[in-house]
## 1
Amino acid sequence: MIKIGLIRRRNACPMRDRRRNLRLSAYLLASVMGALSPVAVPPAMAADQAPVKPALPPGYGEVQVVVLGVTAPFFTFGLVKRFEQIPGVEHASFNLKRGTADVIVKPGATVTDDDLRHAVRNASFSIGSIHWIAHPSAKAVEN
Amino acid sequence: MRLIFREIRALPTLFAGALAVLLALSLIAPARAQITFPSASPISAGNVIVRTQPTVTEYSGGLQSFYDENIVLYGASPDLAFILENKSIVTNSGNIVSNGKTAAFTATGFGDTVLDTRYNLYETDGVGSTFRIAPYIGIDIPTGMDNVNNAVPRTLQPASGEWGTREALTSSWQTLFWNAQALIGYQNYAGSDGFQTGSSLLADAAFHYLIWPSDLDREVPTEIFASLETNYSLSAVDRMNGMAISGTGGQLWTVDPGIIYSTPKFAVDFTALLPILQQYRGPGASRYDYGFEMMFRYSFFTYHHW
């Protein structure tokens, strides 16, 4: 058992010490994870909070593609590039745990399910499903 | 917190289990295998991965070997990949005994090149997992220097000067939290100027375990893996003008713990090569003490593919 800097005082309230130790441990863990992370994590975000997703700009489309077989960030490189190669695709990102690619489509662009299937196969993976969250409008919508 | 400690306590058990699996896999077939051997991992069509891999090996009697292997991997189609391996520089140095006198030697030069073709024969994919089997065949091209130092025996020259072939079956089982890979192969040489390197049976297995981060429910920029690899080779003796060269051939089995830092564009690893079994045919062999290998891998993307 590793104990670094944890408080254990004689004749002290065990519950209070336990709570204090828990808080200290959580803080230490958050500090270590923050130091290891390539991007500095503010203390408020240390408790595993997913960043808030910005709203989709007006007129843009969004499609979620379930891709089977992706297991590590190194393999997402070719997949994301394949999606971004489709004319009209603005940006693509990948969530490893859910196995979903989030593809943002420019206003007025025509991206078909076949384009997405073709991109996934060219990346050497298999398609799960395609779910359009928002289709792009014919042209950019003014705010 | 208690849960974290329980997980930390469970890690040695997990690694012991993984080691047992690797040892069992290695015993299936004997092998001289290279560290970070080719796997059946997916590669996107048009993706180019460049890898450089300097390796230092220390042998008993003061013999030291250094080489830098550069590998270019190209995804020609979703199932077909070409792999070009070249030892850009090889240095063997140590002491050689001749007529009762000991003299220091160094043999430095270009190494040979191997061109491999890998085809993805079987693939089953799930969310965050994939299992693939891919055979590959390769050809050894004698591009290196096989006579840079006349005082040094042929086995210590930077290159063998021989054409050769390599056939292997490799498989990968990858999940979000661990990867297991295995390879069984055979390497054969044609001989050159009376010298022939003994053919080899190769067996490799590797296990990579994700140690950071634990949360993958987001766009993950970086991962750190603990790796444990094992390489086994069973080689025939090298021959000069048909005569067996003493101290060559035999079997070598190494266990290689390491650590891998991986991002979508590049990866770095550091691996120690530790022999646990070595038996050579005849006296005069330099025994393998230990080795270190570093690897830097970078991913490019092209729009050119089949």
## 2
Amino acid sequence: MVMTPEVLTLSEAPWLFTGVMLVKIIVAFVATLLIVAYATYAERKIIGRMQTRMGPNMTGPKGLLQPIADGLKLFFKEDIIPSQAHWFAFILAPMMILAPAFISISVIPFGGDLHFTYDGILYAVPMQITDLNIGVLFIVAMAGLGVYGIVLAGLASNSKYALLGGIRSTAQMISYELAVGLSIVAIFMLSETLSLRGIVAVQQQPLWGLESLSFIPNWYIFCQPLAFCLFVIGSMAEINRTPFDLPEAETELVSGFCTEYSAMKYALFFMAEYANMITVSAIATTLFLGGWGGPFYGWINFLIKVFAFMFFFIWIRATFPRLRYDQLMFLGWKIMLPLALVNIVITGIAILLW
Amino acid sequence: MAANTETMTINMGPQHPSTHGVLQLILELDGEIVVKATPHIGFLHRGIEKLSEHRTYHQTIPLTDRLDYLAPMSNNLGYVLAVEKLLGITDEIPERVQRIRVIMTELTRLKSHLVWLACHALDIGAMTVFLYCFRERECITDIYEKVSGARMTSNYFRVGGLADDLPDGLEGEIRTFAESIPAHVEEYEGLLTGNRIWQKRTIGVGEISAEAAIDIGITGPALRATGVDWDLRRDNPYSGYDDYEFEVPVRKGCDTFDRYRVRLDEMRQSALIIIQALDKLKPGPILADCPKVVLPPKKDVVNNIESLIHHFKIVTEGFKTEPGEIYQSVEAPKGELGFYLIADGSAYPFRMKIRPPSFVNLQGLPQMVEGKLLADVIAVIGTLDIVLGEIDR
Amino acid sequence: MSDQVIVEKLKEKFSSEVLNIVEFRGETTVTVKKEQIVDICTFMRDDFGYNLLCDLCGVDYLGKAPRFMVVYNLYNITTKQRIRIKAPVEEQDANIDTVSTVWGTANWHERECWDLLGIKFNNHPDLRRILMPADWEGHPLRKDYPLQGPDREPYKGRLS
């Protein structure tokens, strides 16, 4: 007898629902943390290889324990709050950066449904912490919240370098959020849903709905290449990665907004940077590369695509110099924003005519 | 409506990742735009000029290593040439010595330019070039170690000759290295020259006209990038430089990008000069035959009573010179490095004035950055190629 | 134009100013009075094309009169010629006019000369100490300034 799986809901099985949710949250959180830790290791190893040097190789086999050693070191360091700093905002800022980075993970689907039987009933549990019907909007909102952390860090430190870093990042993030936000509008126009789960589902149909092309999935990278490019470039700017790492441009602003931070608070900034990198890679995967769809089992596809993106970000860092502030603004407002708007118009016309 | 704006003063350095040592810049910023830049120097002042007045001529050579510590042999060369000119033994220097001096100073030029490119690129954010350049620099430091025993402060040249001959087999090693340089320069160019971000960060940044550059006294690659065709190696040849064929790269852009390209071209030319010098290198003595002022070869010191006496006298009380004053300059990697020596007939220099190229080039900094953005300050500090050891002496 | 011709012309123009001409190892040194140094330098730059002031420094001849000497090493980028001009400066009246209006590069050189030897440059735009700290007392390159610094046992020298 084949049972149709039932969707687990809070009202029907409150305890079971809560338990399953908790497990999902813990798994997703721990996995993200682990990836964050080893993303630092991977970055150092990969860039090391690209730059004809070794990267970490002393702590543990092949240096694999290096992230843990770094974490421990930063954890036990003296936590300094400058006497002229605004202590409350100073402590709040790193948390405000880290929290949105992790929260965004909660709406991303990692894979298809998991099936299990409990009490004789077959349940289907989506591999996603929660499926908001406005998932994309939620992510954009969270990314916007992350700016406050940096601004606050810059202001609260009461240091001129930090202030300059804070100002730079405010301008940078606001202008690039616009371009990023507009670039993904074209996706919603095609998918007609804001739920990330829905968007992945649409991308699993054959390309452009043509059965003859069924060997190619309907990933949005194929029908929205411009939006994809804009999204990736804009995201790099939003997460302050090279060549857009102006807020913490070490050669100009010493360390930018985190100049005055030390110990664990400093570590939180770094974790946030890598967590953001993971989030952005996951969003790009979900929106443009068909999420967890692909040749392997659900979440393995997802991880492969996310890692490919992260590798790309690391590769870019090893290759490019840094832009200047005015050039960054020029690129954001005069090139990317008009292109995103044009893309929306073209998509609209195409939808009308199709 | 007039906006109520205030400028912000920030203190860049002496502890700052990209002021290349202990340079302090007081910047007055209006937003990100530099209104006024005031360099403060002297944090590394060791009084080399004062010290040299209390040391014999030979004892000052190690001090010159510490001027531009990225190009020690060029400083050594400038100083020993000055002393030789003062003694009037310039024509007595054996050919082999001159060839080896050329080889080593051109290697030094490569070494200095590699560090410059590495740091300049790193300042602008291109991290990989930094490590590629240091990979090649490492080979030069190894050669340094083999000839002089030290990797940085070489102290290799002597008045009238060299401390020691080249070790066996080193010629081949230098040749292999020099032949590999053009390919490496291509590699750096591949990463930077065509890169749109690199071009945006350097073209039109830190512009200075030829007239302004001469007025401010800028020399070396920075002057040649403004279209002034002047290189001391070709125009006032010393140490047998008129014997080699090489081009003096000149560009007319006056900006950071052209200074970058001039220096890269210079690296290619240096490699050519090294190969030519190696081709012409013949066995011979490595010290001039002037027993009163030039140290005798070590072999003679242990075998020959006369040489032993000369050695003893030169080492313990130094040699005396005629009273007089001379100015000798060489084309150091950073520009014209001059030594102005006044002798009063004793074993010590009466006065030694060093004309450090970085000191003079740094004067151009305020002119080049005022009205520009903060990020351009970093690019300009990089492009001027300053070394604080030389500025502060 | 050879050095002799240039020196002759200089003598013609400033006959009362030129004190002494020395040639040593192919380098010509002209000693002039300090009063008209700016005019002489302008003349050298404009009429003979010595457009680059390579170096400017002070020398302390302690025990002689005049005690100080300010030395200008000039270079002509077109003809690749060098010449040296010196101007004596008395100890009691240790000042000389600035040439930073003639060559901009003199600015820092003169600051250094003031800092290390205590020769004042009249009309200098920004005469501050440059290598020593702003509150330093004394001028270290003077011959009567102890090598080891003030209030220390005097330096005996490496050989004595």
